[in-house]
Amino acid sequence: MTNNALNPDSGRSAEHAYQSIRDQILSGEQPGGQWLREGDLAAAIGVSRTPVREALRRLSAEGLVRHERNRGVQVQSWTPKDLDEVFGLRSVLEPWGCALAAVSGMADLHALRDLAGEMDAAAKHQPDVDVLTELNNRFHRAILEASGNARLCSLMSSIVQVPLVWRTFSHYTPEELQRSLAHHHELIDTLRAGDSEWAESVMRAHVRAAWTSIRREAGNAHSTSAAPADPHPR
Length: 234
Known about the structure:
Layout: H1 3-6, H2 8-27, E1 35-36, H3 38-45, H4 49-62, E2 65-68, E3 72-75, H5 80-104, H6 109-122, H7 129-146, H8 150-159, H9 162-170, H10 174-193, H11 196-222
Antiparallel strand pairs: 1-3, 2-3
Helix pairs in contact: 2-4, 3-4, 5-7, 5-10, 5-11, 6-7, 6-10, 7-9, 10-11
């Protein structure tokens, strides 16, 4: 039995600390590279250091922060080079997985359609980025699982990190978000048709569109010269 189970108040404090720090990181209030001090966080949140310590362990497991020996805890950051490596791998592996799924006969089209519909609903009015991120991960994971290639699924889970997906959705323009959602519906069409080339092409366009968006955001954060030209100037 955990300490939190023995002490519900402790569990609530840990959850409050986790949500508070997570929101600060994802909103940019605590930027990438920022060192996090347990005492400062505890004072700001209004809890003791113990729930903060537990929250930082959870955030480390999620990839939002990293522990550096003898230095402390730092907010994880991704340089444009890091993003190019991640999305470069995705643009090769995920379209291939989608092509495999189109001919495997294993794709659950009803479940995928439901997920796409839930994402459409979550994107209306004020988009709920947390919900969109969760649904998006389930959608992409379902397609990869339908590829029938377990090693590909395992490899992709190590490449695609939730914070990057969250950042992609949080920095989409309304037009980019609608394009991403439309891609999901078209991906379902490709799987229904059993057309591996179409499926591969749509998934590649989908990943590269996300790549363009997050590179622009990362480039602006590091230097305006690092950002690629916006292919859809407004």
